[in-house]
Structures are given as C-alpha cells and as structure tokens.
Design goal:
Layout: H1 2-12, H2 18-29, H3 32-43, H4 53-67
Helix pairs in contact: 3-4
C-alpha cells in the first residue's frame, strides 16, 4: 500500500519537501500499465447527453492530469 511505501521511504531516505515526495510517489505508483489504462479511458471519453461542457472539460482535465501530472 501507499502508506507502507511511505513509511519505508521515510526510514530509508527521508522526504524533505512536497516536490520530492510527489516525484518519488509518481515514480513508484505510475506504472506503464496504469498510464496505458488511463490513455484508453481518455480515448473513449465522450461528453454525455445533457452534460454541461464545463463538466465534461473538468473530467477531461482531471484525466489528463492523471496521465501527465505536474510535479512542481
């Protein structure tokens, strides 16, 4: 689990900043399989009937940020 990973990381190599934590976390939990799964979801993403464009855009942005997160 992520908590186990975090505790182990703190014992071995303490994390001193949010940026460092994000980089380590992304490196550990963003597997190629996970990224490909997210890309598949992106390819099949459509605006639902009667869904406001703003809501669809928020879902799109959220999915894109999962695929390519900002680390700073």
């Amino acid at each position: 689990t992520a908590l186990t990973w975090y505790i182990q990381t703190q014992l071995e190599q303490p994390v001193n900043s949010w940026t460092q934590f994000k980089q380590l976390f992304i490196h550990r939990f963003r597997t190629p399989e996970k990224i490909e799964s997210l890309r598949g979801r992106l390819r099949s993403l459509w605006q639902n009937d009667n869904e406001p464009t703003a809501d669809y855009f928020e879902r799109l942005k959220s999915l894109m940020s999962e695929i390519e997160p900002q680390t700073s």
